[in-house]
Structure prediction request, 401 residues.
Amino acid sequence: MTESNCRLAILGGAPAFKETLHVGRPNLGDRQRLFTRFNEMLDRRWLSNNGPLVQEFEGRIADYVGVKHAICVCNATIGLEIAARAADLAGEVIVPAYTFVATAHALQWQQITPVFADLDPRTHNLDPALIERHITPRTTAILGTHVWGRPCAIDALTEIARRRGLKLMFDAAHAFGCSHGGRMIGGFGLAEVFSFHATKFLNSFEGGAITTDDDALARRIRLMTNFGFAGFDQVIHVGTNGKMTEACAAMGLTCLESVDELIATNRRNHFAYHAGLAGLPGVSLVAYDGSERNNYQYVVVEIDPATARLGRDELVAVLHAENVLARKYFWPGVHRMEPYRSLFPHSHLLLPATERCAAGVIVLPTGTAMDEERVGTLCGVVRNAFAHAGEVRQRLGLIPA
Ligand code: T4K
Prediction:
């Protein structure tokens, strides 16, 4: 892959892309199947409250993941709140700061203190070697996130949780369709929570699912998702409204039918990026373990400030000018967002790897809205930017003209 000869937009040329390329462009399944499901749903006049589409979706998720119970919810944030509450999490829970803010908010929302632990720079997930220093008498659990769909150090976390008497749960928002040790994500810890938000690998407009093999926990989760109702007029538990609608389940079921093609598309894009960015100093593409199942939903590039010719933010500015809305997930880290920044103003001192990772990552567009040609053009822009790094930096006012 060579650099494009076109003048970069940031230097006054025309943007490489006429239409904006987004990270998180939704993947859609077969429209006709979706419309058929919508029509049947409208004919039935059953739109929510554990309808047949939600029940079918739950069955399909449980089968796909290989767990006893899948409980659909209206989104993963509510799913995390319900799962944490159903599992009696309280006091302090150890979480990564390198995650979407929802992981911490779901705890804080119910007066559970998220305690941020640092990541392993090789995996972007919780570093098990750094967990135990955060355990106090108030700690009740560890909540790991499988960032980018790459599994946490599940075995080491399980061992720590068992030895220290803690519960273990996972935010699996990114990890539908991924495996660890040949077993699908969704079956580890006490429970795992998937997101089916529009931007996710499996899309149900908004939505999510809590998966578990624990019968008693599943029963509590089901009750809590529907106000604690155990039948007409009978409320036996505190609860909320976490229900998924039939329309969302229709979309989820339709997308679920396309997951194999979607993985193939994401995988093709991933390797096109791999080829297109190869050999650029200071630029590395986050890799997936080829011996496991992966959804390849995130194309994540790390920029090493010591060796790359442009910094992460400079490259993002170049890409935005070309109509590529690359994202800086999860900048600046949850610990630097409110209310955590005010509550724990010194937490960054214990999070050096999180800080470095958050400052170095760019997420690029993939999914069905991208193809190899677009990936090639985008990589050409990156090469071009590096080839003209001096001019770019001048344009951005970083070095005097
Ligand atoms: N845990 C983790 C680790 C998570 O990543 C998330 C969600 C959660 C928990 C919570 O799950 P949910 O409660 O959402 O089920 C987006 C998503 O809204 C969020 O779901 C996701 N993580 C996060 C990583 O990304 P933003 O603030 O970046 O959204 P926004 O509006 O900037 O959209 C992202 C991109 O997607 C844009 O470039 C536009 C594009 N897009 C978005 C939508 C909704 C489209 O092209 N079409 C669309 O319909 O959070």
Remarks:
- The chain is about 35% helix and 15% strand.
